[in-house]
Amino acid sequence: MSDEQKAGSNRAPRGSSGRTATEARKPWRRPQALETPEPPPGMKYRWVRTHMRGEADKTNVHMRLREGYEPVHLMNSAAMISPC
To answer: What are phi and psi of 52, to 5 degrees?
Structure first.
């Protein structure tokens, strides 16, 4: 590209436009796609995948059970029951 074409261009430089130029950086936080209710003291709730693409994912469930996770059924958690 010649100097004449550069001088006649009304485009802004690529670095001056974009999201990074206009937004401040946000601090990193752990992603959470599904909301979890407030757990009892000393416990943490964690979603564990049981099915993927319509098929049971027994390997993932058994791996989490070996790691020490215990399933919490919906009826045992009053915070997870939605008011209808």
So the answer is: -145, 125
**Which residues form the domain of 43?**
31-84
Q: How many distinct structural domains can be found in the chain?
A: 1
HSE-CB of 68 using CA atoms within 13 angstroms: 3
Question: What pTM was estimated for this model as a whole?
Answer: 0.48
pLDDT (tens digit, 9 = 90+) per residue, 28-57?
Answer: 777 677 777 788 888 888 888 899 999 999
CA distance 43 to 39: 6
Whether the predicted pLDDT of 61 surpasses 70? yes
77 is a domain residue: yes
Other beta carbons within 10 Å of 45: 15
Is position 17 within any domain? Answer: no
Single out the residue of 29, 21, 64 nearest to residue 46, CA to CA. Answer: 64
